[in-house]
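Readers of this paper often ask what the protein records in our data store actually look like. Nothing more is needed to write down the fold, since each code stands for a local backbone conformation. Below, we set out a record of this kind in full and without editing:
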Amino acid sequence: MGTASENIIIKDPNILGGEPVFRGTRVPFKVLIDYLEGGDTLDQFLEEYPSVSRELAIAAIEEARLSLVAQLK
């Protein structure tokens, strides 16, 4: 799934005004977080946003987790 240097979540001023989105889509990462915070499942999110693969969504959550953990040190 690409090299480790490719971020799963990207910010591009030409895509939704720089809102962080899943690479290769126009789906904001925040939408996934909103689904999960609202009590929806990952499957429900994936049904609504078929352009985001399960692997991409899980990788994004993992990337966010690693980023958070790195900031704690």
